[in-house]
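Hi all, posting the design record for the shared folder.

TITLE: backbone redesign
STEP: 1 of 1
STRUCTURE INPUT:
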């Protein structure tokens, strides 16, 4: 075990109460230690400074495709500031986050690595969606290890529900209400097929596993087997209370704060619609047939054109023009004309 790993473990053990409220700190400190191993600095704590921290952010931004937004970068810095505050207080290492302008430091990193701002009611990019999914998986793994009290169990339950909701939305971007009302008998072949909006959607193996695990967990807590007519989200949450679609916005806020995507604020909800909007935008960018998009999303052609195709990038418009002309030229009358 390297010296910085040893310091990390001491921090995790000594600051356990802090980490219960700052869930993302553990993840970001782990990322930092992993980077130090890549850089060969895990046993050279005295040469680590703010430049190394900056290089770490660049590594996860460029090499790993993570830490893509200002907010996640700031969450990463806050975690490392807490880590070094502990190291300084316990006389293990000097605090590297002193004698500098923190605001200017952050702005320089944002500019250097072209970090994006978090969205509100727009849409998440593909990179942002992957980042949220990856951070959520790490958080759930830690939740399993740490789950003890009532509050921890409630948080864990919220996260496994949000994991299913987000992943289902990404493979079948229907409305929140439609996904929230999915029943057991909407699934086929041991959760490998989902019937939604009259379309049979193939479910990736990882998501099938997540659904099965969530149902088994709920069956154990509810003390009864799930039935075909049960709505899946209602059943999973049943032993805690009544599930409502509106709860998803509150739980999504909790999730984004816990993974460090956004800072903790006085707000009470964060809309889940940008997940669906992002999935649809990616389908549009990938030139998926608008008929297919309309069928699975329930969005009419006129709204699709206004909301999504109206803002297409020029290269996609060129692609569209080319393929429209190609389709017209395939008709028998074209050569006659």
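Okay, here is what came back for every position:
SEQUENCE:
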């Amino acid at each position: 075990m390297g010296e910085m790993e040893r310091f990390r473990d001491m921090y995790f053990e000594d600051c356990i109460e802090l980490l219960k409220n700052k869930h993302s700190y553990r993840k970001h400190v782990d990322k930092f230690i992993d980077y130090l191993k890549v850089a060969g600095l895990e046993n050279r704590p005295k040469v680590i400074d703010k430049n190394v921290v900056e290089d770490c952010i660049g590594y996860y931004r460029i090499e790993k495709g993570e830490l893509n937004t200002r907010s996640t970068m700031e969450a990463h810095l806050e975690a490392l500031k807490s880590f070094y505050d502990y190291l300084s207080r316990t006389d293990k290492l000097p605090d590297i986050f002193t004698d500098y302008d923190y605001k200017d430091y952050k702005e320089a990193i944002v500019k250097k690595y072209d970090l994006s701002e978090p969205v509100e009611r727009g849409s998440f990019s593909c990179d942002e969606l992957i980042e949220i999914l990856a951070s959520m998986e790490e958080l759930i793994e830690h939740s399993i290890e740490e789950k003890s009290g009532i509050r921890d169990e409630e948080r864990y339950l919220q996260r496994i529900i949000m994991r299913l909701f987000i992943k289902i939305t990404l493979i079948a971007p229907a409305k929140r209400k439609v996904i929230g009302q999915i029943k057991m008998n909407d699934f086929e072949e041991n959760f490998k097929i989902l019937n939604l909006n009259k379309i049979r959607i193939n479910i990736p193996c990882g998501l099938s596993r997540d659904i099965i695990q969530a149902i088994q967990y709920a069956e154990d807590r509810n003390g009864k087997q799930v039935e075909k007519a049960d709505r899946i989200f209602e059943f999973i949450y049943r032993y805690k209370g009544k599930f409502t679609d509106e709860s998803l916005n509150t739980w999504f806020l909790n999730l984004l704060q816990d993974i460090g995507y956004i800072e903790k604020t006085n707000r009470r909800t964060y809309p889940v619609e940008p997940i669906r909007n992002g999935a649809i935008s990616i389908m549009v960018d990938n030139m998926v047939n608008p008929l297919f998009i309309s069928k699975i999303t329930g969005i009419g052609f006129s709204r699709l054109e206004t909301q999504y195709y109206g803002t297409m990038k020029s290269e996609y418009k060129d692609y569209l023009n080319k393929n429209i002309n190609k389709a017209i030229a395939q008709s028998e009358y074209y050569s006659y004309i």
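COMMENT: The chain has a mean pLDDT of 88.
Let me know if anyone wants the other runs.
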